[in-house]
Task: structure prediction
Amino acid sequence: MQNLKDLKIAIIGGGYGGAAAAIALRSAGAENVHVYEQAPAFGQVGAGIGLRPATVELFREWGIFDEIAAVSAPSEYLEIVTADGGQVLAREEWPMLHGFAQTNHTRIIHRGDFIEALFGVLPPEFVHTGHKMTGIKDNGDTATVTFENGSTVTADLVIGADGIRSLVRQQLFSDKEPVFAGEHAYRTVISIDDAFGLVTDDNPRFYVAQTGTIAYNLPLRHRNQVSYDITAASDDDSWAPVITNDYLVSLLEGFDERIVNVARTLDISQVTSRSVYDIDPIDCWHSDSVTLMGDSAHAMLHHQGQGANSAIQDAGALADALVAADSVKDALEQFQATRKPLTDELQRLSRLGWTPESAENAFPEHTPAT
Result:
């Protein structure tokens, strides 16, 4: 697109998808790219995630690999084991699976560190906190966004990266509510020294019980910490259920004693308790001047570990489409045609979940969008 340099682009939402989109677009030649985030500041939130080899390859292309590597640790593989830790049910060799040989490993990173690293490479004058969107008007060739603080922005392209409860999606594309998965996720980060010997290397391990309860352990070696997560079935769809240490312990009957001991001794005030939601696939992500991406377009359950990775891949595909197409409209059509079949399938697979019996096929290979 000949005028990509001067195209005015507004990204709604300052998560990793919005930040990655800004980086990808600037790398492609766009200069007028602004990110609008409703929070007053970026904080250290959440727990650990795994950045897959195809995602890491994009960081190399955008010239930010060193910044990501500085706050993450490489992993050789992921293991799924029985709840008591006595049997390895499946092992996924990260680099070889995706055809990157040993060039890129999956890297384990704290969500807060990830956000800080991404925004650390963006010029601060293009990042606007304290901007909570209240409305969006599609004008055809442009779109206008209004914010709670009274300001407005009109842009040639508006990117809705505002998460699972996206207001952009609700006002322009689909008013369907997020879907409760019948699960809760409990997440925290603790020192490796307080993990009762649970961390023996830099590779994630998922302990899975016949009940469907899963204990996820992702080493954050650069922090000397481990991301400790539990997912368990529940009928309570409240957004942030109240829990106790005894309740967590009760979910872990038959689990490796080290996992139980961690649950027993956690500072419960530092545990994030959330009901798990996704969204149904939506028919169309875009108009002529507005598009959704990341969770706003295809929020998925965490069982495939692809939520963050899909958002980053979206960013790369959107930038590629804008470079290749003759207009914003054509680029958005190309972007959806490239990404939607992949994310539809990941949403479907993520809803299936997995059990000890199906662990061997828990992570089927997918060809990443490039």
About this structure: Residues 165 and 296 are 7 Å apart (CA to CA). DSSP finds eleven helices and 18 strands in the chain. The longest strand covers residues 179-191.
